[in-house]
Amino acid sequence: MCIRKHFVLLLVLLACAGCSKEKSTDEMIGDLSFSTNERDRLSAVRRLPHHEQDAAKVVPALIKALKDRADHVRRSAAIGLGYFGEEAKDAIPDLQALLRDPDARTREAAAAALFRIDPDKFKDPRMTAKRVQVN
Questions:
Q1: Is residue 3 part of a domain?
Q2: Of 66, 70, 111, 119, which is the most exposed, with the fewest CB atoms less than 10 Å away?
């Protein structure tokens, strides 16, 4: 009986060995571009900015994600593009269009990304926010 338990445990460990495997950049871009599952797209869009060594692949995928139907995917794509700074200059027109998004948090993320990409051209959204004065 003890051998059987060890054998089952070994099988479970072998099966789970690939569970924590990090997806490649291309796999995440595939999830972001083609998955109908919103959770998969959100996971990919949030993890892709950590692949800065693949900026040439990641930035175009994030730009495409700015047009996703889900607010939080669009917002996360904008945030991710801000991490790439000047490398994401191609995103400027799409981020400017996102400034008119119905979701306020998405608009804020787009403004912050624009500032991070080109601070000489775009204002820091934290400095332009209306401040409420308490009398």
A1: no
A2: 119
Q: What is the pLDDT of residues 3-29, one digit of tens each?
A: 776 566 556 655 555 555 789 999 999
Confidence of residue 2 (pLDDT cuts 50, 70, 90): low
Q: Do the Cβ atoms of 80 and 50 come closer than 8 Å? A: no
Q: Which of 120, 61, 125, 50 is nearest to 88 (CA)?
A: 61
User: Does some domain include residue 135?
Assistant: no
Task: Return d(Cα 87, Cα 55) in angstroms, integer.
Answer: 7
Residues spanned by the domain of 64: 23-118
For the stretch 102-122, pLDDT in tens is: 999 999 999 999 999 999 999
Q: How far apart are CA 79 and CA 36, in angstroms?
A: 22
pTM for the model stands at 0.79
Whole-Å CA distances, 36 to 18, 40, 41, 109, 111: 24, 8, 8, 24, 28
Here the CATH number for the domain that contains residue 83 is 1.25.10.10
User: Could you tell me if residue 48 is inside a domain?
Assistant: yes
